[in-house]
Amino acid sequence: MSEPVAIIDPPDGAVLMHIASPGFRAVEPDIINSELTPASVYAAVAAQREPVFAPRTVTAWLLQDVFVACEGLVFDHHGALYGPSITQHAPAEIEWAAGQVREAIAGATVPGHDGPLVLGKKRGAANYGHWLMEMLPMLHLVLSRVQGDRLGVLVHDIHDPQLGEVMQSSMRLAGIADEQVRVSNRFPVRVRRLILVDGLTRHGTYMSPLVRACHDRLAHDSRGTGHERVFIARGIGMRRDFARAAELEALAERKGFQVLRTAGTTLQQQIGAVRDARVIVGAMGAAMTSIAFARPAAQVLVFAGAAMPDTFFWFVANQFGHRYREVRCRQTEVEAGASYDRDLLITDAEFGRHLAAA
Prior knowledge:
By secondary structure, this protein is of the alpha/beta class.
């Protein structure tokens, strides 16, 4: 039987800074076909019914002699796990990482970095949306406040070349030079000085207004393409897309929408494609994160499966001043256990009505 993992808080003396995150008012989403939403999903998106989010505190700690494993799990030099680094990691993942760290403490060779490094990896590190809205803003938050020639960042090793390009270009736009970047995979690395940030986002329940500063910088010098109506395609082979994606994309084009296919486009091209948009439409998925680069007051129309328990894009829309509408759709039938991971069913007539209303 494996040894239980001790979970600890960072010591008080390790606090590098407390950053005040302002409170904000949130606009409850306009949900179409809300009667399709199961009770369990309605409960899971309870944050959408919070009219006011009180001010909070974002904390950054400077931790000494730690191990980083998997997607951002941070262990001290005795093998105890820092609680704030746990972000939706499964118990099996935590147990595996702890075992790897114990082997490193016992003498197994692992890569090392002196630091200081800002931790820029957490659960969902290989997701475009989580990178842009959760991890990159953490890096920007610290680097915009802490000066130092040796200050670097630690990010996750990504095998998807397009996401890797997005990560690299977004860090450059945020002022992070290539030589500041260190990369690690799921196996442990030892870091002598690591900056751990907590409180900027809580997936599904909170997103701080402080994330805006990062994206304002990314889009500051970007020119729009002049397209005011943009349809963001989910991507070939992606789940949770429209069941008849090609037909609906063609219908959107006939209705005057510019179709944005993010595959094969650079981050700068994605920013430019939505910069002048007044209406942005698409199926719920990572590519819709591009709404963060649209100007305030844009209408965001998101199509989602009835069983999809997600508040991510609603939070993004609130933080960037967009008007958010969500259309819940029936979904294709598949085997049990994949309730929300199914394609969306909608007729041409209904789809056209929603585009017209937007």
